[in-house]
Design brief:
Length: 241
């Protein structure tokens, strides 16, 4: 497990900075697929975020990119969801911070405040989305972008990725998508991934979110689940064939 960090479901809480980090909410995903008729996406995101804030009591919540699913300007409903998420953070007594992801070209038009390329925490953690190199160096890095998942015993499970000597030789944590419907990237099938913050995929340790399984087209459970840590992927691959 990463030091100086506690994991709650699909999120990371850094107590040294009293900050909760959430990545890849992909608001508007439901409207872009048939899942929209099965899930009240806004209610799902708000309920799970509110429950996680209640468990961690953060002073700051950083959304680490891809708040919106749609490339370009969010539509009216998605904009409402994004504003509601910021409002829920304020209602919990915390400060919402938005970091732009590769889907967030239009986020500045709907987010109630500035949108950052990266955000440095008080404990010298740099939170970024993960789709490009951050300009700043830091003691550790936390990002999203990849939606990592892994298949173990026939079940596809969302996971964290952790490398104690990852980006620029510093501890690096990749969060799973907070959206339980966004497609997961099967890391055991890959030799590399599309993120400069994961330079050596074989070196990462997967931390599986142990909740209900993700279906091929739908989401999974949303409880404050235990994270099950596995050896580095290089050691794990032979057992996954």
């Amino acid at each position: 497990m990463p030091p100086d960090c506690t994991l709650h479901g699909r999120t990371a809480f850094l107590p040294g900075a009293s900050t909760l980090v959430v990545a890849d909410l992909h608001a508007g995903w439901g409207a872009a697929t048939n899942a929209g008729i099965l899930l009240n996406e806004r209610r799902d995101l708000l309920d799970r975020l509110t429950a996680t804030m209640a468990a961690t009591d953060p002073e700051t919540v950083v959304f680490a990119g891809d708040l919106s699913h749609r490339f370009g300007a969010p539509n009216e409903r998605t904009a409402g969801t994004i504003r509601a998420l910021a409002g829920a953070v304020r209602a919990a007594g915390a400060r919402p911070i938005a970091v732009a992801g590769n889907h967030d070209a239009g986020l500045g038009s709907v987010w109630p405040g500035p949108v950052h390329d990266a955000h440095r925490l008080a404990d010298d953690t740099l939170v970024c989305h993960g789709h490009e190199d951050p300009d700043e160096r830091a003691e550790r890095y936390v990002c999203g972008h990849l939606h990592p998942a892994i298949e173990i015993e026939g079940r596809k499970r969302d996971c964290f990725l952790y490398d104690p000597a990852g980006y620029r030789g510093r501890p690096t944590l990749v969060l799973p998508a907070f959206s339980t419907f966004a497609a997961g990237l099967r890391i055991e099938r890959r030799k590399a991934v599309d993120s400069p913050l994961v330079p050596d995929l074989d070196a990462v340790r997967p931390g599986v979110v142990d909740d209900a399984p993700r279906s091929e087209t739908g989401g999974s459970g949303s409880g404050d689940a235990e994270t099950l840590w596995f050896p580095p992927l290089a050691d794990l691959r032979p057992h996954l064939r």
